[in-house]
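Residues pack. One example:


***
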Amino acid sequence: MTETSRRSIPFTKMEGAGNDYVYINDLDGTIPNLSELAIEMSRPHFGVGSDGLIALQPSSEADFKMRMFNADGSEGRMCGNGIRCLAAFAYENSLTDKTNLTIETLSGVKTVQLMMNSTDNIIAARVDMGKPILNTQLIPINTSATQWLNQDFVVNDETYQVTAVSMGNPHLVIYQEGIDELDLPEVGPFFENHPLFPEKMNTEFVEVISPNEVRMRVWERGSGETLACGTGACAVAVASVLNGLTATKVVVHLKGGQLNIEWDRENTGNVFMEGAVRTIFTGEYFSQNS
């Protein structure tokens, strides 16, 4: 097949706290094999290079629908940084004039508020991530315990104290010092692929700076170590409150930037995430499989 006969797919590459995805407009539903396309476009050198692919699709219950695929082609239920960028993608491409959008995900409908500067350019977005899930059967984890809060968990003969939280995606939160020296590519896959986790697992390693600040590194299922993870930052904030380590408002420092997380524990019970969004570049991709 010659390059001129391949399908040309317009795309935008965006990042939120360094979490970079390829964004495509699939409102007409004509782009096939999104999982294969995610693998293809996410590859460095041979593709665009990204943590995955996010497609904007029509929704019968919200303004838009988000479908999110990791770099290995697996479909994720939710992506906090991704949904913020997707709302900006829709606005910046004149697909909506709303600055408060509802977006359907596999974890339910989420609300995103776009934040503008004095020249009406998007500088950040705040998303209502909903209520954290603490029930192990819903996270899911194959265990008889109802919750994992500072739970002993053995990996490679080493015992970790873990707290399990789902924010639409499953997360294990682990507190330890020296996270910069941690060999995350070595240990991360053992958590991700542990047999107790039927849908695999995302894992955050966290250092507490103060009652209002933490640092984290994340191993994402299907993508490996990434510069940021929005649902992971939310899970860390919830776990930190449950373990008595921080207040309900916390700044989470990630390799790619920072996110402001608030758990409105006493009122709605929902978690809110705020952070910058940025378009890196746009282009056309000639798919090898379309």
